TrEMBL record:
Residues 1-21 are annotated as: Disordered. This is Uncharacterized protein. It comes from the Eukaryota. It comes from Phycomyces blakesleeanus (strain ATCC 8743b / DSM 1359 / FGSC 10004 / NBRC 33097 / NRRL 1555).
Amino acid sequence: MDEKMTKCTNTIPENGTDVGRRPDYEVTTYEQYQPPFRRYFGKLKGGESSDISAIMYFYCLGVFAKLEIFTRNLTSVLCSQALGTAITFYALTHPHPRIYTFIELAPVTIPKTKNAIMFMISAFDDLFKIAVYHRTISNTPITNA
């Protein structure tokens, strides 16, 4: 059984990333009291973000995820980008020693009014799949093929 600790990042990342471009949110996982690895990075911004900023945030998520996969020998890392009420979940996977894939898992929109809350129910299936995927992320070694 692994213990999970969720925290907001406000310290210098250990993997050498730029402090000014740190993620807003990460999930750190400890297994059997061993040093942690991060299996989730998220970027949160208000709805007034420009398209260029959104692209830069997306790129930063990919860099953070790739560094964590590389330094911790992970199979994948989960990411999300929240721009206003729209949240998009991604997975960066490492299926082969020289290949990385960045996959969009699901977009979810948080309702702004009580009348729109029924639309959130339709997103529960996607959110459950993302939660299950999150639990499968491990630091399994990648074998050379």
